[in-house]
Amino acid sequence: MTDAGAPASRSARPLRTLTALWMGMVCLLFLAFSLDGWFLRTYQSKLLFATMRPELFYAVLTLHGIGMVGLWMAASLAAGNYLLARYVRPPRWASWLALAGTVAGFVVLVEATTEGLFGAGWYFLYPLPMFSQGIWPTWATGGFFASLATLCAVWLIWALATLWAILRQYPLPRALAWPQLAGRSAPAVPPLVLISTVALLLGVAGFLDAFAVFTFYLLQWRVHGFVADALLMKNLTFFFTQMTAYATMYLGVGVVYELLPAFAARSWKTTRVVALAWNAALALALVSYLNHLYMDVVQPHALQVAGQVVSYLSAVPAATVSIFDGLLLVYGARMRWTIASSFLFLGLMGWAVGGVGAVIDSTIAANAVLHNTLWVPAHFHTYYLMGVVLMLLGFASHLGLELSGRAESRLVRRLVLPFFLVGGYGFVLTLFWAGAHSIPRRYAVYPDELARGAFYARFDVVLIGVLLLGIVLFLGETGRHYVTAAVRGLRHRGRS
Amino acid sequence: MLPQAAALSLFIVVAVLVAAVFAGVALSTRQPHDPGAAAATRLRRWFAGVLGTGLLAALVVTLLHLPYPRGRAHPDLVIYGVGMQYAWGLSTSPITTQDEWQNSTFANPIDVPAGSLVEFRVTSFDVNHGFGVFDPSHHLLGQVQAMPGYENRLQLRLTTPGTYWVFCLELCGMGHHLMRGEFEVVPPGAHP
Question: Is A1 a domain residue?
Fold first, then answer.
């Protein structure tokens, strides 16, 4: 295997059924967790559910946050594994284990939040889980941590197994394209391998760090008199959440690098500039979490300044290489536009637009008036919902067509895109607008002085509704292909 | 212009530019052609130059305006802020016990002479809270985290008379949205 192009002929067929199961589950849970999101904005708008207790709002908020972040983490690993099978042999057992662990983890999470009303938010900032004020019982806290530990354990094993599969084929210097960094063109490495290696290293670092967080909670729970340091816990927690987000985002971008060239009938290779960009992305991502702690003034100022410098630097490889190359790939190409290729392309746009909001928020002077306002969910929903989620839905659509061998509905394609664009961008722009008007995030009920928060939420009730229609249309079309393939597979099995 | 308005304006301008570029590229596929490698390299260099220069300029300008207390700036007034589920205790004397915190939550709002440089010394007796100061128009002026075991400091020069509010900006439990504190900024002459 001396050429990056040659091993691409390896079949991904062994992972096809498993990946179809993953994507089917992801699509259905995406609809469920999106309905959670719609419930949250509707509750804030006071249009409906006003008689429900705020405890339920915070519990659903926690479920929505962990559910969505976890769901797309798993989806990115599943899609990455499927496409990596063109070059390496990702072990199926790790994916099956992760599927079982993810289902079990989500079931316990749903129980801990909806029944137990655990509502400490998706990053459960220390020591809130232990200060429930009698709202959530001890079993709900235990269930929450058991759920999260299960999810992190199976994803850590999955990420390590995938990484091991890559390294068996591509030693680390080659997987990180160091020959290209040194100006050599051989031995080549496919961009997907390079990007997946970067993403998996970040994911592994994040999951290992999560177990450090869990250990401190365990010590405080079991060892009398032990109290963890709040600032250390905050650093550890945000490192974990940031690495998870980066790993998901980068695996999604890897999917774009791998799939979009086929739609554009062009190639996307690991050049020196691509190698430089992704090695820089790896180094910068490891310290970029510092931008979450600007408002902790006791954190050394040098680290605060480093947080802003690194956040700004991170924008350069993303914008001038990945997004630029993605645009160049499509510019003037004989493009085959489908739902999949449109979503992959638009996913890059969501990454870019969300990145603009993120860079502004990573400016310490701006963060002082934007931190923990609705600006924060605005920018991360932009690069998640309109970025990596679109990339991975694009993959799900592509897989569906590959499985069924049928063409997609042109009518649905024409309808899905406007629904996603109007609903999705309308929703996030309203969040940006509200954030710039000082509306705090995560308020079940806005106080009288900030009552205008309900006004913005009403816009979102409608706009998320439009987006939900798009999601339903997408699921109907994609699901049709999955069902066709499943029925054909069952018939084939019955005959044989 | 409020910093939030500047942030929103900048975001919208750049986001619209990004969207326009993506739309242009998508439309270019109607007439397939090869853009040429040399032109692409030139464009990348130009783009990297513009982006790098813009980010560097923004970095220099914004790092000169860090919202952190400076050693030389001596505050006219110190207000101690302590968060506990679900209220803010505000006092001009240190709050060191739960009784003092309780009393401070029921005390009359503190009067601050307009134009004062106020230093808030903020901590928490239980979980993490976010100490967000809102002006009489309900715009967020500045914030720090209230963290158990640590004291974060925030300096603000308060010029507009009126009632100022402290809301919690970090999810702290089921009564997160109920946490509030208030103080008054009064015209200089009105202060006793």
Answer: no
Residue contact A312–B63, C-beta within 8 A: no
Q: What are the helix (H) ranges across A286-423?
A: 301-317, 324-330, 339-361, 364-370, 375-383, 389-404, 410-420
| Residue B2 confidence (pLDDT) | 83
- Residue entry with tokens 């394609």: A413
**With an 8 Å Cβ cutoff, is B149 touching chain A?**
yes
Kindly indicate whether the ipTM for this predicted assembly is greater than 0.90, answering yes or no: yes
Per the structure, how many domains does chain A have? 1
Across the range B29-33, mean pLDDT stands at: 93
Q: Per residue in A68-77, pLDDT tens?
A: 999 999 999 9
Q: Which of A124, A256, A297, A373 to mutate to test the interface with B (most CBs of B within 10 A)?
A: A297
Domain membership flag for residue A233: yes
Segment holding B141, helix H or strand E: strand B140-146
Q: Is A327 on the interface with B (CB under 8 A)?
A: yes
The CATH number assigned to the domain holding A310 equals 1.20.210.10
**Closest-CA residue of chain A to B19:** A349
Count of residues in chain B: 192
Residue A299 predicted with pLDDT over 50: yes
Here the tokens at position A171 are 């030693």
**Residue numbers in B near A372 (CB within 8 A):** 130, 132, 143, 169-170
- The residues in A 42-81 lying below 8 A from B, measured between CB atoms, are 54-55, 58, 61
The total of other beta-carbon atoms located within 10 Å of residue A405's CB is 10
Name chain B contacts of A132, Cβ cutoff 8 Å: 173
Residue A337 sits in which domain range?
6-491
Mean pLDDT, chain B, integer = 94
Domain range list for chain B: 3-63, 77-190
Query: Domain for residue A496, yes or no?
Result: no
List phi, psi (to 5°) of B122.
Answer: -120, 135
The per-residue pLDDT for A368 is 96
CB contact under 8 A, A331 and B35: yes
Q: Does B4 touch chain A (CB under 8 A)?
A: yes
Which parts of chain B fold into alpha helices (H)? 3-28, 37-63, 98-106
Which residues from chain B sit within 8 angstroms of residue A428, using beta carbons?
Answer: none
C-alpha span between B112 and A76 (Å, rounded): 53
What kind and span of H or E run contains B165?
strand B162-168
Q: If DSSP codes are grouped into helix, strand and coil, which group holds residue A133?
A: coil
* Average pLDDT along chain A: 94
A-to-B residue pairs, Cβ atoms closer than 8 angstroms: 225
Name the closest residue on chain B to residue A440, using Cα atoms: B169
Domain B77-190 class?
mainly beta
Question: Are the Cβ atoms of A369 and B141 closer than 8 angstroms?
Answer: yes
**pTM, full prediction:** 0.95
Gap between the terminal Cα atoms of chain B: 33
Are A441 and A359 a contacting pair, CB within 8 Å?
no
